[in-house]
Recover the amino acids of this structure.
């Protein structure tokens, strides 16, 4: 998903594509209204407080899960998001975003079992890239409906910071955003 920025009349206008949510007609309309935003920042009033938007990447090969998580993100926090459907795309998007824009994600929600490249493999590759580029660690949270012993340890061994069982809850998302805010305060 891409955006376009345009400077006109002392304003920065950012247009974002929406990710269609197809849970049901009522929620579909609600999600489109929530995500179809044009953010305008007045360049003449740069000293005004500006709302912070988290940048989140959601990686899951299940469209229903992607839609559900996007809905939760909209309820939990103001954020921009990018959805990827497998680990190969996730790693590519992560690297290109750093190389082209110099911006890291605040959070990556990574499904563990996906075709082509698992969440474990993608997380390892992201961590290797961060080390090679001397970047701070992005918060990576593994997500899965699998409930086997040792899953959380395996996530940590593969570079993830947290783990959440599916279905992901609004409470879990809020806890992750609190962790991000705490990390940001410590870095200041």
């Amino acid at each position: 998903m891409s955006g376009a920025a345009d400077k006109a009349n002392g304003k920065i206008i950012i247009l974002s594509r929406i990710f269609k949510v197809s849970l049901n007609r009522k929620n579909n309309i609600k999600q489109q209204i929530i995500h179809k935003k044009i953010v305008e920042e007045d360049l003449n009033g740069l000293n005004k407080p500006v709302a912070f938007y988290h940048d989140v990447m959601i990686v899951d090969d299940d469209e229903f899960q992607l839609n559900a998580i996007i809905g939760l993100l909209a309820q939990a926090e103001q954020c921009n998001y990018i959805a990827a459907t497998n680990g190969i795309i996730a790693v590519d998007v992560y690297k290109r975003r750093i190389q082209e824009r110099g911006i890291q994600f605040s959070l990556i929600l990574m499904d563990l079992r996906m075709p082509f490249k698992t969440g474990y493999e993608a997380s390892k590759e992201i961590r290797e890239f961060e080390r090679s580029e001397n970047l701070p660690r992005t918060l990576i949270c593994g997500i899965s409906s699998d409930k086997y012993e040792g899953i959380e340890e395996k996530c940590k061994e593969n570079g993830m910071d947290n783990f959440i069982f599916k279905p992901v809850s609004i409470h879990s998302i809020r806890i992750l955003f609190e962790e991000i805010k705490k990390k940001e305060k410590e870095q200041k």
Observations:
- DSSP finds six helices and eight strands in the chain.
